[in-house]
Amino acid sequence: MAASTDTEQQEHAGEDGPREPAARRRGPGRIVAQAVSVFGELLITAGLVMGLFVVYSLWWTNVVADRAADRQADKVRDNWAEDRVGPDGPGALDTRAGIGFLHVPAMGKGDILVEKGTSMKVLNDGVAGYYTDPVEATLPTADKEGNFSLAAHRDGHGAKFHRIDKIEEGDPIVFETKDTWYVYKTYATLPETSKYNVDVLDAVPEESGRKKPGHYITLTTCTPVYTSRYRYVVWGELVRTEKVDGDRTPPAELR
Fold it and tell me: Which one of 2.40.260.10, 1.10.260.40, 1.20.120.140, 1.10.238.10 gives the CATH number of domain 55-254?
Protein backbone atom coordinates (compact mmCIF):
# COMPACT_ATOMS: atom_id res chain seq x y z
CA MET A 1 0.00 0.00 0.00
CA ALA A 2 2.86 2.37 0.77
CA ALA A 3 4.47 1.79 -2.64
CA SER A 4 1.17 2.38 -4.37
CA THR A 5 0.68 5.58 -2.48
CA ASP A 6 4.15 6.86 -3.46
CA THR A 7 3.45 6.08 -7.12
CA GLU A 8 0.15 7.89 -7.03
CA GLN A 9 1.79 10.91 -5.46
CA GLN A 10 4.51 10.90 -8.15
CA GLU A 11 1.94 10.63 -10.93
CA HIS A 12 -0.10 13.42 -9.40
CA ALA A 13 2.98 15.60 -9.20
CA GLY A 14 3.78 14.83 -12.83
CA GLU A 15 0.33 15.93 -13.95
CA ASP A 16 0.31 19.25 -12.16
CA GLY A 17 4.04 19.97 -12.31
CA PRO A 18 6.09 21.23 -9.38
CA ARG A 19 4.55 24.11 -7.42
CA GLU A 20 6.49 27.46 -7.54
CA PRO A 21 7.28 29.12 -4.25
CA ALA A 22 4.68 31.70 -3.25
CA ALA A 23 7.30 34.49 -3.07
CA ARG A 24 8.34 33.85 -6.70
CA ARG A 25 4.72 33.94 -7.93
CA ARG A 26 4.14 37.32 -6.23
CA GLY A 27 7.43 38.83 -7.44
CA PRO A 28 6.19 41.18 -10.21
CA GLY A 29 3.24 42.33 -8.10
CA ARG A 30 5.50 43.29 -5.23
CA ILE A 31 7.71 45.36 -7.56
CA VAL A 32 4.71 47.22 -8.95
CA ALA A 33 3.38 47.84 -5.47
CA GLN A 34 6.73 49.21 -4.33
CA ALA A 35 6.95 51.46 -7.39
CA VAL A 36 3.47 52.82 -6.75
CA SER A 37 4.35 53.41 -3.11
CA VAL A 38 7.53 55.31 -4.00
CA PHE A 39 5.69 57.34 -6.62
CA GLY A 40 2.98 58.21 -4.11
CA GLU A 41 5.56 59.35 -1.58
CA LEU A 42 7.19 61.52 -4.24
CA LEU A 43 3.83 63.10 -5.05
CA ILE A 44 3.20 63.81 -1.37
CA THR A 45 6.64 65.38 -1.03
CA ALA A 46 6.12 67.47 -4.16
CA GLY A 47 2.76 68.59 -2.82
CA LEU A 48 4.31 69.65 0.47
CA VAL A 49 7.05 71.57 -1.35
CA MET A 50 4.49 73.32 -3.53
CA GLY A 51 2.38 74.12 -0.50
CA LEU A 52 5.35 75.63 1.30
CA PHE A 53 6.19 77.65 -1.81
CA VAL A 54 2.66 79.03 -1.95
CA VAL A 55 2.81 79.94 1.75
CA TYR A 56 6.14 81.65 1.15
CA SER A 57 4.94 83.53 -1.92
CA LEU A 58 1.54 84.65 -0.66
CA TRP A 59 2.12 85.04 3.07
CA TRP A 60 5.72 85.21 4.16
CA THR A 61 6.79 87.65 1.42
CA ASN A 62 3.94 89.91 2.57
CA VAL A 63 5.23 89.78 6.14
CA VAL A 64 8.80 90.62 5.11
CA ALA A 65 7.70 93.36 2.69
CA ASP A 66 5.36 94.99 5.20
CA ARG A 67 8.17 95.13 7.76
CA ALA A 68 10.52 96.75 5.25
CA ALA A 69 7.84 99.24 4.15
CA ASP A 70 7.05 100.15 7.77
CA ARG A 71 10.71 100.88 8.46
CA GLN A 72 10.96 103.11 5.40
CA ALA A 73 7.67 104.85 6.21
CA ASP A 74 8.85 105.62 9.72
CA LYS A 75 12.04 107.07 8.28
CA VAL A 76 10.08 109.34 5.93
CA ARG A 77 7.75 110.61 8.65
CA ASP A 78 10.69 111.17 10.99
CA ASN A 79 12.36 113.25 8.29
CA TRP A 80 9.18 115.27 7.89
CA ALA A 81 8.88 115.81 11.63
CA GLU A 82 12.48 117.03 11.82
CA ASP A 83 12.05 119.13 8.66
CA ARG A 84 14.79 117.26 6.80
CA VAL A 85 13.81 117.70 3.16
CA GLY A 86 15.51 117.42 -0.17
CA PRO A 87 17.27 120.13 -2.17
CA ASP A 88 14.09 121.01 -4.06
CA GLY A 89 12.14 122.08 -1.01
CA PRO A 90 9.22 120.64 1.01
CA GLY A 91 7.76 117.39 -0.24
CA ALA A 92 10.84 116.61 -2.33
CA LEU A 93 12.60 114.15 -0.05
CA ASP A 94 15.49 111.91 -0.87
CA THR A 95 13.73 109.51 -3.26
CA ARG A 96 15.64 106.54 -1.87
CA ALA A 97 13.56 106.83 1.29
CA GLY A 98 10.22 107.73 -0.33
CA ILE A 99 8.43 110.82 -1.54
CA GLY A 100 5.04 110.43 0.15
CA PHE A 101 2.07 108.21 0.85
CA LEU A 102 -0.82 107.00 -1.28
CA HIS A 103 -4.27 106.65 0.30
CA VAL A 104 -7.00 104.75 -1.56
CA PRO A 105 -10.06 104.16 0.68
CA ALA A 106 -11.63 101.75 -1.82
CA MET A 107 -8.67 99.41 -1.37
CA GLY A 108 -8.74 99.59 2.41
CA LYS A 109 -7.46 101.66 5.29
CA GLY A 110 -3.85 102.65 5.73
CA ASP A 111 -1.29 104.26 3.49
CA ILE A 112 1.19 103.05 0.89
CA LEU A 113 4.69 104.44 0.77
CA VAL A 114 5.71 105.70 -2.68
CA GLU A 115 9.31 105.38 -3.82
CA LYS A 116 11.23 106.02 -7.02
CA GLY A 117 11.22 103.30 -9.67
CA THR A 118 9.20 100.19 -10.53
CA SER A 119 11.89 97.51 -10.47
CA MET A 120 11.32 94.31 -8.49
CA LYS A 121 13.96 95.48 -6.03
CA VAL A 122 11.81 98.51 -5.21
CA LEU A 123 8.32 96.97 -5.34
CA ASN A 124 9.32 93.85 -3.39
CA ASP A 125 9.72 96.05 -0.31
CA GLY A 126 5.96 96.44 -0.11
CA VAL A 127 5.72 99.92 -1.62
CA ALA A 128 4.32 101.58 -4.72
CA GLY A 129 6.84 102.97 -7.17
CA TYR A 130 6.52 105.78 -9.68
CA TYR A 131 7.65 105.12 -13.24
CA THR A 132 10.98 106.34 -14.51
CA ASP A 133 10.98 104.01 -17.52
CA PRO A 134 9.72 103.51 -20.23
CA VAL A 135 7.70 106.69 -19.52
CA GLU A 136 8.79 109.08 -16.80
CA ALA A 137 6.09 110.00 -14.32
CA THR A 138 5.33 113.63 -13.52
CA LEU A 139 5.42 114.12 -9.76
CA PRO A 140 2.65 116.20 -8.19
CA THR A 141 5.30 118.23 -6.37
CA ALA A 142 6.65 119.37 -9.74
CA ASP A 143 3.55 121.59 -10.03
CA LYS A 144 3.16 120.98 -13.74
CA GLU A 145 0.75 119.06 -15.93
CA GLY A 146 1.44 115.41 -16.54
CA ASN A 147 0.75 111.88 -15.35
CA PHE A 148 1.78 110.64 -11.91
CA SER A 149 1.98 106.95 -12.89
CA LEU A 150 2.52 104.27 -10.25
CA ALA A 151 2.87 100.50 -9.95
CA ALA A 152 2.68 98.00 -7.07
CA HIS A 153 2.31 94.27 -6.57
CA ARG A 154 -1.15 92.73 -6.53
CA ASP A 155 -0.14 89.53 -4.71
CA GLY A 156 2.89 88.74 -2.58
CA HIS A 157 5.53 91.22 -1.44
CA GLY A 158 3.00 93.37 0.39
CA ALA A 159 0.27 93.12 -2.28
CA LYS A 160 -0.45 96.84 -1.94
CA PHE A 161 -2.71 96.92 -5.02
CA HIS A 162 -4.44 93.58 -4.31
CA ARG A 163 -7.88 95.24 -4.13
CA ILE A 164 -7.42 97.59 -7.08
CA ASP A 165 -10.52 96.10 -8.69
CA LYS A 166 -12.60 97.64 -5.86
CA ILE A 167 -11.88 101.16 -7.12
CA GLU A 168 -14.82 102.64 -8.99
CA GLU A 169 -15.48 105.82 -10.93
CA GLY A 170 -15.77 108.75 -8.54
CA ASP A 171 -13.66 107.16 -5.78
CA PRO A 172 -10.94 109.35 -4.25
CA ILE A 173 -7.21 108.72 -4.53
CA VAL A 174 -5.11 110.88 -2.23
CA PHE A 175 -1.38 111.47 -2.30
CA GLU A 176 0.21 112.85 0.85
CA THR A 177 3.50 114.76 0.95
CA LYS A 178 5.17 116.63 3.77
CA ASP A 179 3.17 119.80 3.24
CA THR A 180 0.34 119.03 0.79
CA TRP A 181 -2.57 116.66 0.23
CA TYR A 182 -3.24 115.99 -3.47
CA VAL A 183 -6.82 114.82 -3.94
CA TYR A 184 -7.64 112.95 -7.16
CA LYS A 185 -10.95 111.57 -8.38
CA THR A 186 -11.14 108.28 -10.28
CA TYR A 187 -12.68 108.75 -13.72
CA ALA A 188 -11.82 105.57 -15.64
CA THR A 189 -10.58 102.00 -15.18
CA LEU A 190 -9.19 99.42 -17.59
CA PRO A 191 -9.60 95.88 -16.16
CA GLU A 192 -7.27 94.28 -18.69
CA THR A 193 -4.65 95.41 -21.17
CA SER A 194 -1.33 94.14 -22.50
CA LYS A 195 1.60 94.42 -20.09
CA TYR A 196 3.45 96.04 -22.99
CA ASN A 197 0.86 98.81 -23.36
CA VAL A 198 2.84 101.86 -22.22
CA ASP A 199 0.33 104.32 -23.71
CA VAL A 200 -1.62 104.16 -20.43
CA LEU A 201 1.31 106.02 -18.83
CA ASP A 202 1.37 108.93 -21.27
CA ALA A 203 1.28 112.49 -19.97
CA VAL A 204 -2.16 112.70 -21.57
CA PRO A 205 -3.58 109.17 -21.19
CA GLU A 206 -5.82 109.21 -24.24
CA GLU A 207 -6.81 105.59 -23.71
CA SER A 208 -8.61 106.77 -20.57
CA GLY A 209 -10.71 109.18 -22.61
CA ARG A 210 -8.75 112.37 -21.88
CA LYS A 211 -7.50 114.45 -24.79
CA LYS A 212 -6.04 117.53 -23.09
CA PRO A 213 -3.13 118.01 -20.68
CA GLY A 214 -4.02 117.91 -17.01
CA HIS A 215 -2.90 116.63 -13.63
CA TYR A 216 -3.48 112.88 -13.79
CA ILE A 217 -2.66 109.86 -11.64
CA THR A 218 -2.42 106.29 -12.95
CA LEU A 219 -2.30 103.10 -10.88
CA THR A 220 -1.13 99.89 -12.56
CA THR A 221 -0.72 96.31 -11.41
CA CYS A 222 -0.80 92.74 -12.69
CA THR A 223 -4.00 90.88 -13.52
CA PRO A 224 -5.60 88.36 -13.12
CA VAL A 225 -4.69 87.88 -9.47
CA TYR A 226 -1.66 85.59 -8.95
CA THR A 227 -0.50 86.07 -12.56
CA SER A 228 1.39 88.73 -14.49
CA ARG A 229 -0.22 88.11 -17.87
CA TYR A 230 -2.01 91.45 -18.21
CA ARG A 231 -2.21 94.86 -16.54
CA TYR A 232 -5.06 96.47 -14.59
CA VAL A 233 -5.20 100.26 -14.83
CA VAL A 234 -6.98 102.99 -12.87
CA TRP A 235 -6.94 106.68 -13.85
CA GLY A 236 -7.71 109.70 -11.69
CA GLU A 237 -7.61 113.46 -12.15
CA LEU A 238 -6.57 116.09 -9.61
CA VAL A 239 -9.57 117.97 -8.22
CA ARG A 240 -7.84 120.04 -5.52
CA THR A 241 -4.94 120.32 -3.10
CA GLU A 242 -4.95 121.05 0.61
CA LYS A 243 -2.14 122.34 2.78
CA VAL A 244 -1.13 120.05 5.64
CA ASP A 245 -1.89 121.59 9.04
CA GLY A 246 0.00 121.09 12.28
CA ASP A 247 -2.09 118.03 13.19
CA ARG A 248 -1.85 116.53 9.70
CA THR A 249 -5.65 116.48 9.56
CA PRO A 250 -6.56 114.35 6.54
CA PRO A 251 -8.89 115.68 3.84
CA ALA A 252 -12.58 114.87 4.07
CA GLU A 253 -12.17 111.96 1.63
CA LEU A 254 -10.07 110.09 4.19
CA ARG A 255 -12.15 110.73 7.32
Answer: 2.40.260.10
